[in-house]
Design brief:
The structure holds two protein chains of two kinds.
Chain A (H helix, E strand, L loop, with lengths): L18 E9 L8 H14 L16 E4 L7 E11 L5 H10 L5 E8 L5 H4 L2 E7 L5 H13 L4 E6 L2 E6 H4 E7 L2 E7 L7 H8 L7 E7 L1 E2 L2 E2 L6
Chain B lengths: L11 H8 L25 E7 L3 H4 L3 H12 L3 E7 L3 H10 L17 E5 L6 H10 L15 E5 L15 E2 L4 H17 L5 H11 L9 E5 L5 E6 L8 E2 L27 E4 L1 E2 L9 H5 L4 E2 L2 H15 L3 E5 L9 H11 L6 E3 L7 H10 L7 E7 L3 H6 L6 H13 L4 E8 L6 H22 L5 E8 L16 H16 L8 E5 L2 H12 L5 H9 L13 H11 L7 H5 L14 E2 L4 H12 L17 H5 L17
Helix pairs in contact in B: 3-6, 5-17, 6-7, 11-13, 13-14, 14-15, 15-16, 17-18
The chains are: A alpha+beta, B alpha/beta.
């Protein structure tokens, strides 16, 4: 009955990546309640439904070559999330975007796609622009609260995480802001730990806060967040 | 924009602020790929399909997925899904004055005409009460008016719906695919005719056509000793016994064709294709095998096509081939080989979730995991000793088992999981301790054949709960305390072994939830008051150990039964005699009571019964009574569609 001990060679070879497609996607409507992992599963399934030539890693448990960067917190909407697909065959990035969109639930949508010129996508995401709604608050009231916060700099807030309380330096990452009727628009540098809208809200301390949206991510140039796909 | 988001009927705008404050809000938002939200006003009949447990458990449920598609394909109705809400959202909904809702277009459950409830397990019963109460639907059927939906249950536990009878308007027994169509037609016709007779008129038309069982149309009387005296219909035209529905051609019903793809994480992250329904192996503990007879295979061609379509329409990378004993499909060898060839490059993994102990299963598993990881392989001997396995009619010799696991370790599997039950009829400590000996033997043989020390074996074991419509429906259930004592005895036996103990994992479920399951499984209408008392006292999510409270059930049972000749023990640990009227005797699964009783006697005598697919018919009664027949292949059809 004794058989020879078996050593199986995995027949799954890793696919070489011949093209990297960078995509900007939005997370809005009811899908803002999806977590980063929820989006990852939805994207991987959309890629499979579209039969895109996604490159796979090798081994007994192959996985698609997809890199994610700086996920927005669950429950917060975003117009500017980024992901990079490693393809085993070249494809027109616009076709990739359309094919992926056909398989995503409403609320997740690829907004733009481009072929990667190389380098790290995450490194280009230097800063985020957040819009935080304060329904009913006038621009001057918001401006006053922000001015008071910046006067007190440096300000850190304590955020509860799974591993306990964590200090987040809010004003150190603060790059720029503008105040509108009913909204505060803030640009913060992407740091570790990342400053989240909830941290900004806690630091500003203004009552009557509404939803927040990430409007842009990219290089910080001339006081504004640029497009990470440029250049 | 979502069609229902017109601001007038969808509750979503009012729910949205609440969702930011609760755990895993994504489970409540709907909008998944392949979900449907038909125009409300376009159809006369509106179904809510309710799975009374969390979305993560309910969303992958095959029954709901099938009926959701079958109903939404019809021109005369729509169907939306609803799941239990966790206590955090329940509190928010009550605070905000909002009802329970469908996830598809976020309508109140009270807006629907028909609430189809899947009673897949007994431990979801309290969650159904929460959903009804949140929607403002009276818990008791007798308190509902023409303005309230009909609450119609189905699923395996609905084969004894008596403990839930006062809360249900109607019950469908057996396969739902055709039955929901008839309910829809009768409801539509009743509506068109101006709702003659009101709510009762509709229920009468549903009951008289044999489509459903209406508990309120039956009167149950009791004897002084607590047992049931009679169960009889209280009006003309209603059958004495209500028969189950049996779908006879699975190839004609290839559902689900496009399963909903959850965005939230669920317990089964895969697509499931049912390869056959029913099982005649005759395992005496297995309610599913008894109530779903006869065996009806889906042809290999139809299975392959469903897998192909399903993968293209969902993007799932794992496919489970479901049935009660998947290796028994007459074309499984060709199917496994063909599918493994076909999906060799696309990184789709295939699995046979329910397999029995024999070497053929290892070959199949090897084939299906040709390119993939060979981590764990599961077998279910169920009983610890050969003697107990004869009692339960799960004929596996120790030699079979060792040969099977040896084959598994030899072909590169590293981890074998073995499923057992504790508290099977006639079981003694010696039978239970055989499990430990078996596990050690598995490791010893596995180390020898694989030449490695790091192979593992996990023993998973839980208490046996006797179920209606099985030969063990008369059996005493083992008490929670005795179940726990035997489980700890086994645990200590396994852990104390120096040579093999560390290679053996031991997972067990303690006995108390099993007693509540037993109460709800074999209870009668008097148990309904216990369920309602538990629910009123805060009972929710009884299938979840962090929410389950045995005390709550025990206390409620003591209070409700204080002046009655029955008790929690009476319903669970008491053996029934041959003449006792069982609460489900008017519900016909096709099984001949004499056959069941004889099978119970054969069990006690350790006599086995054969499978009617390969040995002569043992006259269980199903095919005669239900006018059905075994449908097995090989179908002879060229089964792989052109890629």
């Amino acid at each position: 009955m004794a058989a020879d001990p078996v050593k199986r060679q995995s027949p799954n070879e890793a696919h070489p990546v011949v093209q990297r497609v960078r995509m900007r996607y939005s997370k809005t409507g009811r899908m803002r309640f999806g977590s980063a992992r929820d989006f990852q599963r939805a994207l991987e399934r959309a890629v499979r439904r579209a039969q895109l030539p996604i490159a796979m890693s090798g081994g007994f448990n192959p996985h698609p070559r997809i890199s994610y960067a700086n996920a927005v917190p669950t429950g917060t909407a975003s117009l500017a999330e980024y992901v990079e697909l490693g393809l085993a065959e070249p494809r027109d990035p616009q076709d990739v975007a359309a094919a992926v969109n056909a398989g995503l639930p409403d609320g997740f949508r690829v907004e733009a796609a481009t072929v990667s010129p190389g380098g790290s996508l995450a490194d280009r995401l230097e800063a985020s622009r957040w819009r935080i709604e304060y329904p009913g608050a006038g621009a001057p009231a918001i401006a006053t609260a922000v001015a008071a916060l910046l006067d007190r700099a440096p300000v850190t807030v304590t955020r509860m995480t799974k591993s306990g309380p964590r200090e987040v330096p809010v004003t150190d990452s603060w790059l720029a802001h503008s105040c509108e009727p009913g909204a505060l628009v803030v640009i913060v540098r992407s740091t570790v730990p990342t400053v989240r809208p909830e941290d900004i809200v806690a630091a500003v301390g203004l009552a009557g806060v509404g939803p927040a949206t990430r409007e842009a991510q990219g290089p910080f140039r001339d006081g504004a967040v640029g497009d990470p796909f440029d250049g | 924009m979502h069609p229902a988001d017109d601001g007038t009927t969808s509750l979503y705008p009012r729910l949205e602020p609440l969702l930011g404050r609760v755990g895993k809000p994504i489970q409540y938002v709907g909008g998944e790929v392949n979900s449907v939200a038909k125009d409300w006003t376009s159809v006369p009949v509106h179904w809510a399909l309710v799975y009374p447990d969390a979305y993560e458990v309910g969303a992958p449920n095959q029954g709901v997925q099938i009926l959701y598609e079958v109903l939404n394909e019809r021109a005369d109705c729509l169907a939306e899904r609803a799941y239990a809400v966790w206590p955090d959202l329940e509190a928010e909904l009550r605070e905000a004055g909002l009802p329970s809702f469908s996830v598809d277009s976020h309508r109140s459950l009270a807006d629907f005409d028909l609430i189809g409830v899947s009673l897949a397990t007994e431990l979801g019963y309290t969650n159904l009460l929460t959903l009804l109460d949140l929607a403002g639907i009276p818990l008791r059927s007798s308190h509902r008016t023409d303005d309230h939906p009909l609450v119609i249950a189905g699923g395996h536990s609905a084969f004894n719906p008596e403990p839930m009878a006062p809360f249900l308007d109607a019950v469908v027994l057996g396969d739902g695919e055709e039955a929901v169509g008839r309910v829809t037609e009768l409801t539509g016709a009743w509506r068109l005719a101006g709702c003659p007779g009101g709510r009762v008129g509709l229920l009468e038309s549903l009951a008289r056509t044999g489509t459903v069982y209406v508990p309120a149309f039956y009167t149950v009387t009791y004897r002084p000793d607590g047992a049931i005296d009679t169960i009889r219909p209280d009006r003309a035209g209603v059958p004495w016994r209500v028969a189950k529905h049996t779908l006879m051609d699975l190839d004609e019903w290839p559902y689900p064709k496009a399963p909903v793809v959850p965005v939230a994480e669920t317990i089964h992250e895969r697509m499931s294709v049912e390869i056959f329904r029913g099982c005649t192996r005759g395992c005496r503990f297995c309610q599913a095998g008894m109530i779903t007879r006869p065996v009806r295979e889906r042809s290999g061609a139809a299975v392959a096509e469903m897998i192909d379509c399903g993968i293209r329409r969902t993007g799932f990378n794992e496919v489970g081939m479901l049935s009660l004993s998947s290796a028994d499909h007459s074309e499984i060898g060709d199917l496994a080989r063909g599918l493994a060839d076909r999906y060799a490059d696309s990184r789709t993994s295939l699995s046979l979730p329910s397999t029995r102990v024999d070497a053929f299963n290892v070959e199949l598993a090897d084939e299906l995991s040709r390119n993939g990881r060979r981590s764990g392989l599961t077998f279910a001997p169920e009983g610890g000793s050969e003697r107990v396995r004869r009692v339960i009619n799960k004929t596996v010799t120790e030699e079979d088992l060792i040969r099977t696991v040896t084959a598994a370790y030899a072909s590169g599997w590293r981890h074998v999981k073995l499923y057992f039950m504790c508290g099977l009829p006639t079981e003694t400590d010696a039978d239970v301790l055989q499990i430990g000996r078996l596990a050690r033997e598995v490791i010893r043989a596995g180390r020898e054949v694989s030449g490695r020390q790091d192979i593992r074996c996990t023993v998973s074991i839980g208490g046996f709960v006797p179920k209606p419509h099985t030969p063990f429906q008369w059996a005493p259930q083992l008490s929670a305390a005795e179940t726990d004592r035997r489980l700890l005895l086994l645990r200590d036996d396994i852990r104390s072994d120096r040579k093999y103990g560390r290679a053996i994992g031991f997972r067990y479920h303690d006995g108390q939830p099993g007693i509540v399951e037993g109460l709800l499984a074999r209870g009668d209408r008097r148990v309904a008051d216990v369920i309602e008392a538990v629910w009123s006292g805060g009972g929710r999510f009884d299938g979840w150990s962090e929410h389950f409270s045995f005390d709550r059930w025990q206390t409620a049972a003591e209070q409700v039964f204080a002046d009655q000749p029955v008790s929690l023990d009476w319903y669970t640990t008491r053996e029934r005699d041959r003449d006792e009227v069982l609460p489900w005797q008017h519900l016909d699964a096709g099984l001949d009571t004499e056959w069941l009783w004889q099978d119970w006697q054969d069990a006690l005598a350790e006599d086995e019964v054969g499978d009617c697919r390969w040995t002569p018919c043992s006259a269980c009664g199903v095919c005669d009574v239900m006018d059905t027949a075994i449908q097995v292949g090989p179908s002879g059809r060229v089964w792989l569609p052109t890629p």
